[in-house]
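ok so for the tutorial part 2 we go from a plain amino acid sequence to predicted structure tokens. step 1 is just haveing the sequence, like this:
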Amino acid sequence: MPTTISPTTFFRSTKLFFFFSSVIFSTIILSFFCLSAFADTERGVLIYPATIYLTPDRSAEKLATMTRGDEVVVLEKSHEWIHVLATVHSGQEHEDEEGGFTNAHDISGWILDKGAVRASTPNGGQILFGAAAEAEDQASRAHGRKGAGAEAFRLYSRTTEYFPQSPVAGEALYRAADIRWQLDKEDVMSRPSAKMRDPGMREPINEDMMHQVMKKFPGSKWADLAAFHLIENKLCGDWQGNSKCPEKESERYEKYAEEHPSSPTAPEALYDAAWRQAALIEIYKTENNAGKSAQAKSRASSLAQQLVSKYSQSDWASRGQTLIYMVEQNIPTYGNATE
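step 2 — the prediction. this is what the tokens look like for a chain of 339 residues:
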């Protein structure tokens, strides 16, 4: 079964997951509840680590260190210093039985007034997005900065929150959603239930953020990409040689390509649909259904040709040509059949 990871995301490297912190999502949720009482005050997002001091003095007692993507509420200003309220995380917190989070607490102190991007900061959206992209790049490296994946998630999320009208807001929310999706997918697919044929028998990948992208940025390519991800929750684990799985999956991918013709993943969707029809050629033979096998062969060629014609500049078009050739030459594309 072919892989269906969006080509626009750069989380293709499996090394990336080793840098993701288990606290990515609790950080955002906890900060929201702790700081929401100060919604009318000025807030800022750090793009650079900051030390919190007891008083506005470099020689004062150091209370904690904030990281990139952490949020602060500005209580007052004094020359080059700002008095802030922030939520400090230990890096080991987890959700408790009551829905709260342990090993995290609010702290009030002073930090130097630099690196805290506010809603009033000129080009603030691009600044946060750029910092998020840098963190994302670090997370993909074998020896990148520890915790960079968590930083990227926070910074992308807050780019959209602070600057919803920014030209990068849609992409930022999608990238945050994609990070969460990949993490959840890694967890879901590591469980024994992932191999079960019925997708309803496994825990679904969390769709909340993808739906947010589609709701807040309808008609955008980011919404298209989000919709493509959602198909993954409908895919079977192991087909077990049964025709029902590839039949339904082919229909879903073909429908996606029809409804999202301008999506960056439309060519991939057509290929996925065609590949499943090609697989059905052999599966129907094992079910002693020569008529459906012939129909699947015709349908596979038709979908692959549609891919080649509509998206000739895509890499998927070349893969479509290969699929057409294999189907025409009666070369099995599924199973262990050899001659």
